[in-house]
Design a protein that fits this description.
The chain has about 300 residues and is an alpha/beta fold. The chain has helices at about 5-10, 25-35, 55-70, 85-95, 130-140, 160-170, 185-195, 215-225, 230-235, 240-260, 275-285, and strands spanning about 15-20, 45, 75-80, 100-105, 140-145, 175-180, 205, 265-270. It contains eleven helices and eight strands. Helix 5 runs parallel beside helix 6 (about 160-170).
Length: about 300
């Protein structure tokens, strides 16, 4: 099923993001998370793609298994980093062969340093909009792209960043998912600016549950979103108590989600870090779950 159909079926909904496991224990943890979240009926689940294609085979295998062995709608990531156009065509073909019809097309982070200088493959692509066109050319895929509520780190100004996002959408993108953020205003401004430009393509906010002090600080470092001073102040009393910090952080995350839903945002995209408890708690707390029974074969009952 195409993700756009899932997003249109009911409001509000949620989706989740996983990364391909590195070893057997990691794979077991991932599948525990998948099985715990499956009965809650996310609109879709996505599997990331390592910088430079480092996790390419695992991404294809993991996404394919989700597509065939569960009731979930799967989306695979695809990046242009370190890949020629011929290699990208091969990956897209492998996704199609695995029964995957939804792809998130992103230019990708430089290998080794996500904030380092990005260099295109000599026989590859330079921009995400080119990757969107390639995916659409190769097959009948539903394609998502990345959005940056506070601008891509390399964008000179918000206007340039908006132009790049609109270019990706005009190249054929069916929806966009934002980088994570910790306060809603930047995302809501981006949504409104898209609408003012005549673009009504679905825009999903990226949410990472605040369960540890590390997630509070590391997320903004990678996404380029600001770390709100008032949020840091509210959480400061709990930094030396992991359990108390998690409780307070989850309250803050729930409040962020509630604000977005109150503003009419139709879906929330959760970055799970391959763990399910925090996402499952938030989904239940926010009333986003569509409970269903799932049999041992992975098919809904």
């Amino acid at each position: 099923m195409r993700i756009t159909a899932r997003l249109a079926a009911r409001h509000p909904v949620f989706s989740v993001e996983f990364f391909p496991p590195k070893d057997e224990p990691g794979e077991a943890e991932l599948w525990r998370a998948v099985r715990r979240l499956e009965p809650l009926d996310p609109a879709f689940v996505s599997v990331t793609y390592g910088a430079g294609g480092s996790n390419r085979d695992r991404t294809i295998r993991t996404t394919g298994r989700i597509a065939t062995d569960t009731t979930l709608v799967a989306m695979a990531h695809l990046t242009a980093v370190s890949h020629s156009v011929a290699e990208l065509r091969q990956v897209i073909g492998a996704y199609a062969a695995a029964g995957i019809t939804n792809i998130l097309a992103v230019r990708g982070d430089p290998p080794g340093d996500p904030l380092g200088e990005w260099v295109a493959h000599p026989e590859g692509l330079t921009y995400a909009e080119d990757l969107v066109r390639l995916v659409k050319e190769v097959g009948d895929f539903c394609v998502g792209v990345a959005a940056f509520p506070y601008g891509h780190p390399r964008s000179p100004d918000p206007e340039s960043d908006l132009r790049f996002l609109l270019a990706k959408i005009r190249a054929g993108a069916d929806f966009a998912i934002s980088q994570l953020f910790l306060e809603p205003d930047g995302f809501l401004r981006l949504r409104d600016r898209l609408a003012a430009a005549g673009c009504h393509t679905p825009l999903l906010p990226g949410i990472m549950p605040l369960t540890t002090v590390r997630t509070l600080h590391r997320g903004p470092e990678l996404s380029g979103a600001p770390l709100p001073a008032d949020l840091v102040e509210r959480l400061a009393p709990y930094t030396d108590d992991a359990k108390a910090f998690r409780a307070a952080g989850m309250d803050e995350t729930a409040a962020l989600c509630e604000r977005l839903l109150a503003e009419g945002v139709p879906a929330l995209h959760f970055y799970t870090l391959n763990r399910s408890p925090a996402t499952a708690e938030l989904v239940t707390r926010l009333g986003l779950a569509a409970e269903r029974t799932v049999g041992v074969s992975g098919r809904a009952g």
